[in-house]
Amino acid sequence: MSDILRRIDTNKVIDLTRELIRIPSENPPGNENEISEFIKEQLTKIGFSTKIHEFSKGRPSVIGIASNDNKSKSLIINGHTDTVPVGDDSLWRHEPYGATIEDGRIYGRGASDMKGGLAAMLVAAETLMEVGVDGRLVLEFVADEEVTGYGTKDLLDRGYKAEYAIIGEPTELKVQTAHKGVMNLKFMVKGRPAHASMPKTGVNAICKASRLCLTLQDVQTQFNNRRHPILGEPTLNVGVIRGGVKSNIVPDYCELIVERRLIPGETKAQVLYEVDGILDKLREGDPLFNVTYEVLHHAEPSETSPESSFVKVARECVKEVTGSDFGASGFPATCDMRFLVNQGNIPSIILGPGSLHQAHTSDEYVEIDQVVKAAQIYTLIALKLLT
Ligand SMILES: [Zn+2]
Predict the structure, then answer these.
(1) Do 111 and 63 sit in the same domain of this protein?
(2) Would you give the distance in Å from CA 237 to the centre of its chain?
């Protein structure tokens, strides 16, 4: 292992990860003030120039920039400072904000998602500063990834760009080049109320919604020919059905909430066109089928070519540190990569310590060894790309 990587001090990685976990930054409600101040201090201490930007009042993101005159080469490393809430703390065996160390792991809310990643970014930044950074390195510690993604979007709107970007979400140190998008749709089916003893005088909204439910389920089989090489098929799940008041009333309303996961190449317009087609067909066969829908939430998918030189460099660095080339894989959830790729046109990868299996769970932890290795990998990638 190169001398540079030996500079990365395991104790420093552990201390920083624990300090970051001990500062709650739950979202909702969304409070990244204290953690942003802490990160800004750390960045200033190691010689980065810093800025705080709020996308709305009280929602700060921190920027750290190290730059020399050679600005032609540039890299963003992006991580989010917010975490999901602790939830039911009786399900935690370890104190959620205690940052307890046990069996080579650090426990706490955000350990994997993604305070371990933030610690790795900070330690890599310090190491790079010591050995001298060529080009322009931009560290982004953004607010509000867990709910809206506005932190990252805001920094792009303000003009923060680079040739390449790494998102430090938990990937167990694998290079991930694509992630799915998501769309949540609410279908509202209307019927006509009637006394249950005379159901023919009414229109049963639950029964109409059931037909829609089964038709939507069938759509999944049409996805077989739409496989993405890394992410597989799109998916559709009817997750909620709500309707009816009493057994003696023919229900006049029933709603479904559906989650559709999109693969790169699929667009919102395309999904809505397909939905309209399904509803038109149901209406054709049944003049009493009365449905409207609305999009509750939409986040686009994105991808970077796994054949790109950036991905190759990242995989080489992972191999140099871990001894393994895991290839290029996919991130199962959505993340801020979509803004960097789709809005910023920045080839991006997701690569960080911890596991998505740990994210959002009770008793969340991160392996210390992975955080140390992530700091080494970020250092190596920055050195290779910026010099
Ligand atoms: Zn995350």
Answers:
(1) yes
(2) 19
Q: How far, in Å, from the CA of 146 to the mean position of ligand 1?
A: 7
Rounded to the nearest angstrom, the distance between the alpha carbon of 141 and the centre of ligand 1 is 12
Instruction: Report how far ligand 1's centroid is from the alpha carbon of 169 (Å).
Output: 5
**Same domain for 379 and 287:** no
Do 47 and 139 belong together in one domain?
yes
CA of 258 relative to ligand 1 center, distance in Å: 23
Q: What's the domain count of the chain?
A: 2
Q: Are residues 218 and 273 in the same domain?
A: yes
Q: When comparing pLDDT for 133 and 126, which is higher? A: 126
CA of 115 to the centre of ligand 1 (A): 9
- Evaluate the CA torsion angle 339, 340, 344, 347 in order and state its sign: negative
1 has a pLDDT exceeding 80? no
pLDDT tens for each residue of 241-292: 999 999 999 999 999 999 999 999 999 999 999 999 999 999 999 999 999 9
336-363 pLDDT per residue, tens: 999 999 999 999 999 999 999 998 999 9
Q: Which residues contact 71 (CB under 8 A, 6 or more apart)?
A: 135, 136
**185 lies in the same domain as 175:** no
Retrieve residue 151's tokens: 């932190």
Its domain, for residue 232, covers: 181-299
Q: How far is the CA of 68 from the centre of ligand 1 (A)?
A: 31
The residue to which tokens 């949540």 are assigned: 184
Distance 373 CA to ligand 1 centre (A): 18
Identify whether residues 360 and 371 lie together within a single domain: yes
What is the per-residue pLDDT across 199-241, written as a single tens digit (0 to 9) for each?
Answer: 999 999 999 999 999 999 888 888 888 999 999 999 999 999 9
Expressed in angstroms and rounded, the spacing between residue 149 Cα and the centre of ligand 1 is 10
Report the 10 Å Cβ neighbour count for 186: 16
Element (H, E) at 260: strand 253-262
Instruction: Based on the fold, state whether residues 88 and 32 are members of the same structural domain.
Output: yes
| pLDDT exceeds cutoff 70 at 103 | yes
